[in-house]
Amino acid sequence: MNTKKSKLSQEVIAGLTTFFTMSYIVIVNPQVMSSPGTGMSLTGSLTATVLISFLMSFIAGIYIKLPYALAPGMGLNVFIAYSLIIGEKIPWPTALGLIFWSSVLFIVVSIFPIRQKIVEALPNNMKHAMSCGIGLFLAFIGLKNLGLIVSHPATYVALGDINFTIALGILGFGIAFILYHKKKPYAFLMSIVIVTLIAIFTKQIQLPESIFSLPDFKSHFFQLDLIGSLKWSFIPVILAIFITNLFDSLSSIIGLSTSAGFIDKNGNPLQLKQTLLVDSFGSLFSSLFGTAPATVFIESSAGIQAGGKTGISSIVTAFCFLPCLFIAPLITIIPAYATTPVLIFVGILMCQTLKHIHADKMDDIIPIFLTIILMPLTFSITQGVLWGIVSYVIFKVIVGKIKMISPVLWILAIICFLALVTEHSTLIKYLMTFN
């Protein structure tokens, strides 16, 4: 009996640890999704973030029965907000519709063995390049929003003047680094809290008149545009969301299962099909609630290290999110320079995948380079994915390595090529205008 009590208390502690490790998403995700230019509501984004984190972490605990927690993914939220809504000027209800259709594809792929075919079709170097490119894009946005990087008419970008708020952001990054280095689960959250408190004491921001408020179910809930998002021109975007979501999920799941020992005798993650299914439905519900796709959080590893072994820990994490529904006024005062250091830090962590890239031939190096560099330079994750896949196939054909291109990769490359030609070819645009 004492053993059972000990195990239960261990799961509770693990669940709390996971929550404090990933709780920064309650603050950062709404700010990303409601960035100037998206047209999305901060309070609506907050409600959607909290509810999807609660619901999917709870379902994960019940169905997967492993200590995996879910929430809107970093990288995916930046992709939706900055690349699609702001960059490509896609209305946010349409963007939510695109998430919905990519999630439907994700569900089909998770049920049938199509997933393995797509995973096997993309070279490992390209998968790691995509992750690194997203990380660089994320860090660039963080530096830009902080004001450390500014636009310049001659050099395009330049270093901004270091004022008090930028100094606070740099301090926040330093705090996050120190706590992260010491393996503290609250590293990101504490960085945000300390910088916000300093901003309050120095009168950079003011406390709200009230701390508590009711959840905002009106702004985003079921506001997605399913019909408007069903266009031929959006197929590459749906595919880009799907691929980004798929590999983000797989990398987190593989990393978590390997480090925790949740693998079978063949070295494959336990409950992989169930985990991917929950992950795909998390994306679907996210589009309905009005936020970026929910995915398995790598921060779940903190709870696993704290002793989490079952779904009980995920259920504990889930219920920790619920009180956050009622503190919107408190979260809305948190300044951007308190949260941008987290964006930069997460971006740097994602760039760690560079160490897994092994390439010494130009037909490998060029697609990798294009995938990574075009994401921040074009302000679009989609462009990095499209150019990376198309260039990989083209250069393999040029050097006579056609056998390395699988039928699935041919199909992906053709779709990506058509997307690039349709969207960016001035000749086709001219002919369409002429007709």
UniProtKB/TrEMBL annotation:
GO MF term set: purine nucleobase transmembrane transporter activity
Membrane topology: Multi-pass membrane protein
Keywords: Membrane, Transmembrane, Transmembrane helix, Transport
Chain segments annotated as transmembrane: 12-33, 39-59, 66-86, 92-112, 132-150, 162-180, 187-206, 226-247, 334-354, 366-390, 402-422
Main location: membrane
Subcellular localization(s) per the UniProt record: Endomembrane system
InterPro entries (alphabetical): Azg-like, NCS2
Pfam families: Xan_ur_permease (PF00860)
GO cellular component: endomembrane system; plasma membrane
Similarity field: Belongs to the nucleobase:cation symporter-2 (NCS2) (TC 2.A.40) family. Azg-like subfamily.
Protein name: Permease
